[in-house]
Amino acid sequence: MEHAAACLYGAKSAFSPVLWKPALFWAADAVHAAGLDAGVLPENDDAAKAAAAKLPVWDAAALAKACVGAKDLLLLRGDLALVGADSIRAAYDAHKANQNDLTAFCCPDTGDAPAAWVRTAALPAALPTEPGFPLSALLLRLQAAGARIQRLAAPVASAALCADTAGNRHLLTEAARWQILAALLDAGVEIPAADGVLVGPDVAVEAGATLLPGTILRGNTHVGAGAVLGPNTLLEDCDVGENARLNSTQGYSAKILPGANIGPFVHIRPNSVIGENVHLGNFVEVKNSSIDTGTKVSHLTYVGDSDVGKRVNFGCGTVTVNYTGKAKFRTTIGDDAFIGCNTNLVAPVRVGEGAYTAAGSTITDDVPADALGIARARQVNKEGWSRRFLADKKK
């Protein structure tokens, strides 16, 4: 498309999310994929948001300058999320082939025209730049002036649907969801049942991975080949290695290495690295921690601000006590250590390689390598105590 430019004009819903991505960003990506330079003519306070996203922000002068340098201008509502590069190119081809002054891109259901190619020589001297950029008014003005106008129906309704109502955003999200799932299926990703499976536009899933019902992937998440996610798993900005398994897990800004077996009911918080073949079982929370190869954290455990070595075994109910109320401290656990059930590790503390902690201990001092750390009161049995207690209770 030579000597052509595009203007994404303001709409109140331009930053409304469609599958977590603002509608304006979808539209801008489509325009760029079509090979066009584009500016944003924002509405109200959207200029700062557009600038923060590194989108060129235009005013009336910039729009006029673009019209001077281009023979044809694409005017497109900023909330037209799923217009698609192919639709933009097809409308342009019809616009040029028929020598139109204006080629409107219309919704097949309503006839509304949220986008149009316009021959810049046919534009009025002063373009409207007020909020909403009344494209319909421009169309009527050119029509009254005898301009050559063609209306093209979008190939599917979602391509000409604006994200300006909750109902439309639902329809757009469903359309975007199925576009992405269809592409993943074509690429060899296994999705046995798509119920509740949502994959964001910036997510990458390698062939051979499996997404089970209720899997939600968003942000810059990457899933390796052979990984099995779900059911009911939510990941945001996570890197999942090959052949990892995550069942009923939530993870945020974390790295999960190949072969990890996680879930059910696991919460992985930001800045965590889960090593190869690590097992995290039910009701485990990991935060800002690294857990090395082969370690097992089977159930009911909190690992926070910790550096855990290889082949460590965590007994049920272990807690790394990382917060004093004023500051947070780290716990370090060496390779092959064994942490007994209901151990409290009060940071800063170190458990050496091969060391054990006795069940029920509250460890406040370092445990040397190969040592047994015991930090609990010695058991005392008081013979006959319960009979005396119950007798007193009956009085």
Automatic annotation (TrEMBL):
It comes from the Bacteria. Its main location: cytoplasm. InterPro entries: GlmU-like, GlmU_C_LbH, Hexapep, Nucleotide-diphossugar_trans, Trimer_LpxA-like_sf. Gene3D superfamilies: Hexapeptide repeat proteins. It is found in: Cytoplasm. One of its GO terms (molecular function) is metal ion binding. SUPFAM superfamilies: Nucleotide-diphospho-sugar transferases, Trimeric LpxA-like enzymes. One of its GO terms (cellular component) is cytoplasm. Catalyzes the last two sequential reactions in the de novo biosynthetic pathway for UDP-N-acetylglucosamine (UDP-GlcNAc). The C-terminal domain catalyzes the transfer of acetyl group from acetyl coenzyme A to glucosamine-1-phosphate (GlcN-1-P) to produce N-acetylglucosamine-1-phosphate (GlcNAc-1-P), which is converted into UDP-GlcNAc by the transfer of uridine 5-monophosphate (from uridine 5-triphosphate), a reaction catalyzed by the N-terminal domain. This is UDP-N-acetylglucosamine diphosphorylase/glucosamine-1-phosphate N-acetyltransferase. The lineage of its organism: Bacteria, Bacillati, Bacillota, Clostridia, Candidatus Fimenecus.
